[in-house]
Every structure is written in C-alpha cells, then in structure tokens.
Fold this protein.
Amino acid sequence: MKQQTKQLITKDTTIGDAVQQVPEAVEILIAEGIHCVGCGAANWETLEQGLAGHGKNEKEIKTMIDKINKLASEQERNPDSITITKKASKKVKELLKKDKKKDHFLRVEVISGGCSGSKYSLDFDNKHLEKDVVIKSNGVEMRVNKETLDMLKGTEIDYVDSLQGSGFKISNPNAENSCGCGDSFN
C-alpha cells in the first residue's frame, strides 16, 4: 500500500500562510512569475486566486501546489532534534567555503538578550566543547550545548531570500512568543 503525503497546502491556503508554513515556496512561486509573495495581497489572497490572477490554469495551479507540498514533506521536522533545510544547508556550506573555514561547523546557541529575554546565535566554530551535542542535518554539522538543547528540540533553521530581505530564519516550536524582529523569544 502506497503511503500518501499529507496535503499541507491547498488551493484555498492564502499565499502568506503557504509561505509561512513552507518558506521555500517563495522560490517556486517566483520561478513561475508569481511575485505577489511580498505584497499585501499575500495575506488574504488564496493561492488559487493569486495564481489564476497571474494567468495560471487549473492544471498549473495543481502542479505548483503539489511542488510546494512535496517540498514540505521533504522538510518534515524531527521533534527531538534540530534540522536545517536544504536551502539553509547550501548557504552554510557556501559561507564556510567563502570564509575558508573548512574544519568548522555551525554552532547553534540560545543566549540571554533581545527584547523577549533570549535570542539565537548562529556562528562558525572549530572548538569542540565537553557539553556539545553533535547534530547532522542535510550535510551540515551543528553543535549545541546540552543545557539548551531542550529549548531547541524540533527547531528548523531555514534560509529565506525574499523581497523583504535575506537571512536565516529559525522556527522554534518551543518559543512561547517572540518579538517583531524575529530574533528574540522566550
């Protein structure tokens, strides 16, 4: 019996919700000429409305939604670990190469500060600390302190390149709330 992929995104999902749930959907939409992912209409316009408004037929709409759902299923989060998306992995590898840090890894930390009490820190490091937990995801080695791992379980690190800007985006299911900048949480 073939297992079906759960349909996370439908034609009735707003563009804004689709991009929030699957950040890499931006690439799929922009590649197809759909640039409204960064405009105000994205918050209330469904994928079907937005795509049809850009001349896409029913078959093309279904194909794009299937691509987004396939991407979402490939990026399922591990609830007991930290994962990094393929796009973020590619960016980390690119930065390591550019900075000539061949023997380095990505250190993921939670530190005090920010508007909400704690903030994330991503940095390249080559020091192996006693309290480190080694996590590998999509070809990237990450290290996180054992004491903060519970705060980060299930976290996904993505790289977003959109009209609003580019950078690493951290989605942490353990954060009770975060500030407007997205870098600080509690």
Notes: The radius of gyration is 18 Å. The first strand starts at residue 83 and ends at 84. Residues 58-74 form the longest helix (17 residues). The helical segments are 15-21, 25-31, 47-53, 58-74, 86-98, 146-152.
